[in-house]
Amino acid sequence: METKQWTVNEIDEAAQVLKEGGLVAFPTETVYGLGANARMSDSVCRVFDVKGRPNDNPLIVHVSSFEQVKDYVDTLHPYAQKLVDTYWPGPLTLVCKVKEGIFAKEVSAGLPTVSFRMPDNEVTLSLLKKAGVPAVGPSANTSGKPSPTTFEHVYHDLQEDIEGILDDGPTKIGVESTVIDISDPEQVPMILRPGAITKEQIKQDLGIEVTYDKHLLEVSETPKSPGMKYKHYAPDTKVLMVKEQDWPAAVKWAKENQLSAGVLAGPIVCDKIRADTAATFAYKDDSIAAATKGLYAGLRALDEAQLPLDVILAAAFPEKDLGVAYMNRLKKAAAQKYFEG
Ligand code: TXA
Ligand code: MG
């Protein structure tokens, strides 16, 4: 099958294909998603197939309004409306208890809950409205690889397996949404996957103290969100995280061991060590926002560097605010390993 590249002027065609059961990758503010009609079992199964996704890992249902979600859910959490008013459309996914039989059963992978998200992207909101159906939307990458933040990344992984990709340029945030469990109205909301909406921000905006799933604080704990247990976001090349003060030692180590090293860091670090390493991918600036936006693109670019690399050295950031989400993904790509000077 030839995968089509749809421009923003071709949303109608993409919506028709999505509605009728085709697989349509769409842009969001976080990463590109692999869309399929959430009510059609065959289409949802194809999503698992083309991604090579384990079938115990549930999918997020993408909607164009909160009103839709209200139709699907039995009892809403007392904070649901507040969270939606503050963060939707945006990178916050809500795990809710749903009525039976609304979505294809594969969507929830055997769990009694379904997660919902309204993405902050005009093109995709229009796609969803025009299609008139809720759409599953896992990240549009081969399972285990870094999530796609451009049309080209999706095309690289899924060309010939899906009907088309709606192209809206690079995504703004760069890592997947915050997943928060509000399925039990009696319990405090719990973050299952960190993203751009942070624990600190929710506290600041709403005065609500949410918790973290234990596995986010202690790696030995089993995650509540099935997807978080898999090795994820990993390029083929080995990745080592480097703390700010360790860059000179890390570069020296690579040189002494005649390793071809790629560097993924902000411009300050890259400018200093470019001459001593095989390849660099500099984030746009030295902020954590730029690092988060560039992380997956950088891992993919270095993984495909012309000269094959022995190791990717990637900048570690402090684990606060957006740094929690960035480090959550980078640690998985690096199998938790830091360069030890
Ligand atoms: O930003 C995003 O969320 C992107 C864009 C495309 O919207 N989508 C995305 O989907 O990251 P995916 O499928 O790659 O990740 C969904 C995560 C997985 O870790 C999955 O286990 C978890 O959400 N999840 C989905 N439904 C769940 C549920 N009912 N209970 C617990 N975790 C759930
Ligand atoms: Mg994913």
Looking at this protein, list some descriptive labels.
about 350 residues, alpha/beta, DHBP synthase, Rossmann fold, four-stranded parallel beta sheet, globular, binds threonylcarbamoyladenylate, binds magnesium ion, transferase, nucleotide-binding, TC-AMP_synthase_SUA5, nucleotidyltransferase, cytoplasm
Brief sketch in words of this structure:
The protein is of the alpha/beta class and 341 residues long. It contains 11 helices and 15 strands.
Indicate the topology:
Blueprint: E1 4-6, H1 11-19, E2 24-26, E3 33-37, H2 41-51, E4 60-62, H3 66-72, H4 80-87, E5 92-97, E6 113-117, H5 122-131, E7 135-136, H6 151-158, E8 164-166, E9 178-181, E10 190-193, H7 199-206, E11 211-212, E12 238-242, H8 247-256, E13 261-265, H9 267-273, E14 279-282, H10 288-303, E15 311-315, H11 322-333
The site of magnesium ion has 3 residues, from loops.
Examine the coordinates and then state which fold CATH places here, giving the name of the CATH topology of the largest domain. Answer: DHBP synthase
Given this structure, which CATH class of the largest domain is correct?
Alpha Beta
Residue runs with pLDDT of under 50 for 5 or more positions = none
Q: Give the assembly state of these chains.
A: single chain
**CATH homologous superfamily of the largest domain, by name?**
DHBP synthase
Sequence of strands across the biggest β-sheet: 1-8-2-3-7-4-6-5-9-10-11
Number of helices: 11
Shape: globular
CATH architectural arrangement of the largest domain = Alpha-Beta Complex
The residue-averaged pLDDT reads 96
Bound molecules: threonylcarbamoyladenylate, magnesium ion
Distance between the first and last residues' Cα: 50 Å
Percent helix, as a range, is: 25-40%
